[in-house]
């Protein structure tokens, strides 16, 4: 259904440090930077991009938006969360852990990147 996700950044170098660390914690490679300065991360068939806004206005995060990343297990979600905090992200929502509801059991870990974008590591657990 999705081809890619893209977030805005006001500081691409800061974002590269953050996302290289975040995705490196779960086996991803460092981001590639194109001739326009955009970062591209490719992992497990997904593409995630970071760019300065094309309209020249400051990047802002979307209120109510969350970008979720699939994790293989809770330990991988914890490593992702820890790497994000160490690379300049901030914890948000409840601490990493199991959430149950609507016949689903999920392990979730939330962060905000240095530009305020809300990110979530998600592992679907057996019911």
CATH class: Alpha Beta
What class, by secondary structure content? Answer: alpha+beta
Largest sheet: 5 strands, mixed
Helix content: 10-25%
Look at the structure and give the mean pLDDT.
Answer: 94
CATH topology name, in short, is 2,3-Dihydroxybiphenyl 1,2-Dioxygenase, domain 1
Number of domains: 1
Count of helix runs: 2
How is the quaternary structure best described? single chain
Architecture in CATH?
A: Roll
* Uncertain ranges: none
What general outline do the C-alpha atoms trace?
Answer: globular
End-to-end Cα distance? 25 Å
Protein name: VOC family protein
InterPro entries: Glyas_Bleomycin-R_OHBP_Dase (IPR029068), Glyas_Fos-R_dOase_dom (IPR004360), VOC_core (IPR037523)
Report on the structure:
The structure is a single chain. The protein has 127 residues and is of the alpha+beta class. The protein has a single domain, classed as 2,3-Dihydroxybiphenyl 1,2-Dioxygenase, domain 1 (Roll), CATH 3.10.180. 20% of the residues lie in helices and 35% in strands. The protein has two helices and nine strands. It has helices at 12-24, 74-86; strands spanning 5-8, 32-33, 39-43, 46-51, 67-70, 90-91, 97-101, 104-112, 118-125. The strands form two sheets. Strands 5, 6, 7, 8 and 9 form a five-stranded mixed sheet that branches. A four-stranded mixed sheet has the order 1-4-3-2, covered by helices on one side. Helix 1 packs antiparallel against helix 2. The longest helix has 13 residues, at 12-24. The model has no long low-confidence stretch (mean pLDDT 94).
């Amino acid at each position: 259904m999705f081809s890619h996700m893209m977030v805005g950044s006001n500081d691409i170098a800061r974002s590269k440090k953050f996302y290289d660390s975040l995705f490196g914690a779960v086996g991803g490679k460092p981001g590639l930077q194109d001739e326009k300065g955009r970062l591209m991360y490719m992992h497990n068939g997904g593409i995630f991009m970071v760019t300065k806004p094309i309209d020249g206005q400051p990047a802002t995060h979307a209120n109510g938006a969350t970008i979720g990343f699939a994790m293989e297990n809770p330990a991988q979600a914890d490593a992702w969360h820890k790497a994000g905090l160490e690379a300049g992200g901030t914890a948000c929502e409840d601490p990493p852990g199991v959430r149950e509801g609507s016949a689903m059991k999920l392990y979730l870990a939330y962060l905000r990147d240095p530009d305020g974008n809300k990110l979530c590591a998600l592992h679907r657990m057996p019911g």
